[in-house]
Amino acid sequence: MEKNSNESLAEKIFRLKEKKTNVKTEIMAGITTFMTMSYILAVNPQILGDAGMDKGAVFTATIIASIIAILIMALYANLPFALAPGMGLNAFFTYTVVMTMGKSWEFALAAVFIEGIIFVFLTFFNVREAIFNAIPRSLKTAVSVGIGLFIALIGLLNSTVIVKNDVGLGLGNLVSKESFIFFIGLLIMAVLTARKTKGALLIGIVISTIIALFTGVSKLPEGGIIQLPPSLSPIAFKLDFSSMFSLEMFSVVFAFLFVDLFDTIGTLTGVATKAKMLDENGQLPNAGRALFADSIGTTLGALLGTSTVTTFVESATGVAEGGRTGLTALSTGFCFFLSIFFYPLITIIPAQATAAALVMVGLFMIDSIVDINFGDFTESFPAFMTIIMMPFAYSIAEGIAFGMISYASVKLLTGKGKEVSPLVYVLALVFLLRYLLPLFS
Fold first, then answer.
1. Which segments of 27-165 are extended strands (E)?
2. Total-model pTM
3. Is residue 248 included in any domain, yes or no?
4. Domains: count for the chain
5. Per-residue model confidence as pLDDT tens digits over 339-389
6. Domain span holding position 412
7. Which residues, at least 6 apart from 47, have a Cβ–Cβ distance to it below 8 Å?
């Protein structure tokens, strides 16, 4: 009786039948998403720690900010996307704003807070949703494919199967314990996926982690696996607004805005396309609410003491496992909540385990490439530029930029300019000026 009651409540809140899913699938998808993005709990404190921030406090701030944003995504937007402080954005925070520009981390937090407030207003007036809806369907599909290649590359680099070298990229050491764990995990996931086993990626991650423990790649934590979360006091509400109206603050806020805006839009576009969540007009229902989630997460996260919160591309792993509603995101959020007490356990998941999952998701996301009209060069060329620039430039935002510029240019110069939304022309011009202005400075 209690089980039926819980299922009924879940149905009422998340409309599971309408989305053709069920409670078990959603929970498994949420756990899988958490497993593939859990690295942020270790990486974010390390990166922001390089800026002089207290690592333990950053760990706690990361989790609380993520939970707040995820709850909004789950209960307000009813979408299966998880959020956390974004990679790339945290690196910009530390290595550009603090270490290169010589600004304090308090200054950087103030910039993140201002960015969040601006995003709240942009979301309230539907500016971000309008941008999302203006992206042509062929580019939406290309974004999905490009993200697939991008996260597959991230997985290969994290596994050390592919490494950076003097030429660019090359094979790493394939005869190592780490490579063995990666390939075993990848094989398990591939076989279970072929056999249509639910939770294939999660099972692969768990088995890979067990193997890592036995081979010595991972070690059980010392001093117990449960601990109280570190205090926020060293970093919370430490924002420095003394340079709020300076040119440097403007440039930093603009950089945060640009990367976050198009990373989030790109992630939502790509993952939603893969999940077939877009309507007949190529638009994502509740896109505005989804964008509101990362706006609030960023604003409150800055107050707590962490960098910009954004929608994680690793949400694609949960979608690949069948996640379709906010219950997937809620399950991920619950895992974040538990992790605040079990941080020592998070550290035992080897990078190779989650890397294999990312490579598998890359495969899942590129299959939509068949929906691109390669018979029309004005559609295929911009799509191709979008796809290749994401992994090669190592940025979702740059892939969108090149896609927008090439789409507007090719359409206009071939006499098909009327097919392009005015907003796409505006965005293409903004992107183009962004690349050209440094030439005149």
1. 83-85, 162-164
2. 0.75
3. yes
4. 2
5. 998 877 777 888 898 888 888 888 888 888 988 999 999 999 999 999 999
6. 373-436
7. 90, 91, 93, 94
